Amino acid sequence: MNRTSVQAPGAVVMVRPHHFSVNAETAADNAFQAEITTDADHAKQAYDEHSAMIAQLEAYGVRVHVFEGDNPGLPDCVFPNNWFSTHAGGHVAIFPMKAENRRLERRQDILEMLKSNYRVQDVIDYSGLEQDGLYLEGTGAMVLDHIDRVAYAVESDRTNPIALERFCTHFNFEPMVFAAEDDKGTSIYHTNVLMCVGTNFALIGTEMITDTARRAEVVSRLQSTGRDVIELSNAQVSSFAGNAIELMGKDGPLLALSQTAYDVLTEEQRERISASATLLPLAIPTLELAGGSVRCTIAGLHLSPRH
């Protein structure tokens, strides 16, 4: 098994939630959020689930930089992948967020840690685009193929085409945009609930891509890289099967996904993934009430460590 891949980071940033709740500001266009009122019990459960997830990832050899999310005004701080991303060559991007309370999740201490522990050449900050109503919510809005240099992106208020084009120009990605909706006709809010691109495989909810010609183009592009394209049903996407991330552990590639997602995969799908990555199911049912799953909780670090 390969021990390195530009697609699968071996280190990540995670923000442990101390005051988890479902964010009322994001409910309007996130159909994956639960329509419930969260309380102190949910917050405790989310904290415990997240702590267990960190321990499991570390046990498999992933380096986890843990930050504490102790601001009660930031219900979605557990999802840091939306406000920053990192890229080979020492590049960091900071993204414009749609919800005002999510803009406060950007943290200087995380950026300083990156500069101290990794070789950071530049930080490109797109957050000023918020003043013009232009949003691009990081690796939620985009699923990045770091090998073929493609940014897959669902059309959404959280994925502005101007911001996307600017990012792709700066970071050398080709944008591949498509419309997607669930079986109720509701638009998908973030691309990373719909698909996951690994080194040798891709998971994608093809049924949700509304234009059949575009759907074929997306699948063909993924297949052209030699990847095994594993198609997910609408029901599997709704259970977060697409919201997974390939990471590099001490014994090779891992696919980190939730227990909810793992349970809805067929035996054949699991076998196809296992051909190149170890499946690592993580139980986070409380965290998933907020409309995101394992992928959303992890900001992968595609940077070279300082020695």
TrEMBL record:
One Pfam family it belongs to: DDAH_eukar
- Lineage: superkingdom: Bacteria
Which Gene3D superfamilies would you find in this protein's record?
A: L-arginine/glycine Amidinotransferase, Chain A (3.75.10.10)
Q: Which PANTHER family does the UniProt entry name for this protein?
A: AMIDINOTRANSFERASE
Name this polypeptide is given: Amidinotransferase
